[in-house]
């Protein structure tokens, strides 16, 4: 192997090693910031246990929040009214 080939190969390994550690840092950072839960619920009534779990996981009692996306209803505001009644 020529000297130039050796240097190019060495630089390739160094670049790969640096990029690999950078990706690990990004993954750790992303895991630290990933919080929350997603509840996908069909139409109809919701069991009390499910509503309680959503409240606990969202932290509503401690100032947290929840978002309701009424996408499948023909009357979008009815989903909001139904959710707030529960």
Structure in words:
The protein has 86 residues and is mainly α. Helices cover 60% and strands 0% of the residues. The mean pLDDT is 74.
Task: Flag low-confidence runs.
Answer: none
Please state the average pLDDT score: 74
The helicity comes to 55-70%
What gross morphology would you assign? Answer: elongated
Give me the number of helical elements.
Answer: 3
Task: Tell me the span between the first and last alpha carbons.
Answer: 74 Å
Query: N-to-C SSE series?
Result: HHH
**Total DSSP E strands:** 0
**Main beta sheet, described?**
none
Protein structure class: mainly alpha
Structural domains: how many? 2
Q: Proportion of β residues?
A: under 5%
Rg: 25 Å
How are the SSEs ordered, and which strands pair?
Blueprint: H1 3-33, H2 48-58, H3 76-85
Q: Descriptors for this entry?
A:
2 domains; mainly alpha; single chain; elongated; 86 residues; 3 helices
Quick recap of the structure?
Helix content is 60%, strand content 0%. It has 86 residues and is mainly α.
């Amino acid at each position: 192997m020529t000297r130039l080939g050796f240097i190019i190969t060495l630089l390739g390994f160094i670049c790969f090693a640096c990029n690999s550690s950078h990706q690990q840092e990004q993954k750790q950072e992303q895991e630290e910031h990933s919080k929350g839960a997603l509840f996908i619920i069909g139409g109809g009534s919701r069991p009390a246990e499910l509503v309680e779990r959503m409240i606990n996981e969202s932290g509503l009692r401690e100032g947290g929040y929840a978002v309701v996306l009424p996408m499948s209803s023909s009357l979008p505001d009815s989903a909001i009214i139904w959710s707030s009644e529960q």
